[in-house]
Amino acid sequence: MSEKDSKKDSFHSKLLEKQNEAKVVRKIVLSVFIILIIVFSGIIGGGYLYIKSALEPVDPGNQKAVKVTIPIGSSVSTISNILEKNDIIKDARVFKYYIKFKNAADFQAGEYTFNKSMTFNEIIENLQQGVLMEEAAFQVTIPEGRQIEEIASIISKNAPYSEAEILATLTDKSFIQKMKEKYPELLTDDIFAKDIKYPLEGYLYPATYPYYKDKPTIEEIIEPMIKKMSEVVGNYLPQLEEKNVSVHWFLTMASLIEEEATEKADREKISSVFYNRLEKKMPLQTDPTVLYALGQHKDRVLYKDLEVDSPYNTYQNEGLPPGPIANAGEISFNAALSPEKTDYLYFLATKEGEVIFTKTLEEHNIEKNKHIIEQ
After folding, report:
1. Which neighbouring-strand residues pair with 68?
2. Among the residues of the chain, which ranges form H helices?
3. pLDDT tens across 107-129, in order?
4. What's the gap between Cα 162 and its chain centre?
5. Which CATH superfamily is 66-129 part of?
6. Close Cβ partners of 67 (under 8 Å, ≥ 6 residues apart)
């Protein structure tokens, strides 16, 4: 090999070596760039979720009164820190920046009564108007899993109205229409669909409601329950849009889960059974819908009960019933949108409150013979 050829080979060798080094450098730079993008996206995404959560009420279903003192001359920062310390807001900094964004001012000192279900706007409005601490004249506690007729009874035991008067307002078309116009994202035309027993069934949020008048009107007693449901359901609207389901469908599914669940029940698994049956076009066959159709409350559903002729009877009709059969809480709301991934098609509750899930009718009948006395 000539000296010229040797130099040429050496040049090519060095050139290839530099090209390989450049490739390695490019790969390293690309890898670092990708890692930085992932980290940066994670920080941005995590920050967004944190701020979104901080903007929401601490506990939407908790209306227990919390007394808070705002001293004279308190700055926005001081007020924010006091509210965070009393667990009325999640993050003082987020609240402080929200106040600046809203250009809110003129906060008044005093003794306030707040609760963990209050939104930022409600807190700010109270601080600006000086809505100070006062004792409630009475309060009404609506538990989860209650139906319209039960709610009317609960209200009548605490307020100066009869069950009949309260139920008349709950079914009054002009009142319902007024609420529908005021809370359009919650109350849609679905509540007036064919075969609906009570338009507002499932639309009164379970919580404790204080009232500061000795005798508020029945409408003033009921509207806070609708308003609170509207606020809570509003947090789920993006998920409902993503799943392409209506608020009415959502509340109906949640009510079935609420009525079937025991304290020990895994609601996500109950939800999965309903989803699996809907997908296979199987009747849901859930006993609470039969009891709702019968208008009765009892521990056991008899075989003859399953024959009740009603659109709410999910033993005779495919799909969800026409509407909710009770009110539901957030645990059931979450389960209605996030069923566990299972192959279960059946479940039954034992006397001890345990819920047994099975995949086939044969397995279900075996468990039923073990735990349920034949009717």
Report:
1. 112
2. 3-54, 76-85, 92-102, 120-129, 148-158, 163-170, 173-182, 218-234, 237-243, 247-260, 267-279, 287-294, 330-337, 361-371
3. 887 788 899 999 999 999 888 87
4. 31
5. Endolytic murein transglycosylase (3.30.1490.480)
6. 111, 112, 113, 133
The torsion angle over the Cα atoms of residues 25, 29, 31 and 34, rounded to 10 degrees, is: -160
Q: Any idea where the domains of the chain sit in the sequence?
A: 1-37, 66-129, 138-234, 237-371
Q: Which residue has the tokens 């509540």?
A: 191
Beta pairing, strands 355-358 & 346-349: antiparallel
pTM: 0.68
Q: Which residues contact 124 (CB under 8 A, 6 or more apart)?
A: 99, 102, 104
CB of 274 closer than 8 Å to CB of 264: no
Say if residue 5's pLDDT is above 60: no
Sequence-distant (≥ 6) Cβ neighbours of residue 331 within 8 angstroms: 267
Q: Which helix (H) or strand (E) holds 210?
A: strand 208-211
Q: What are the phi and psi torsion angles at 174 (to 5°)? A: -65, -40
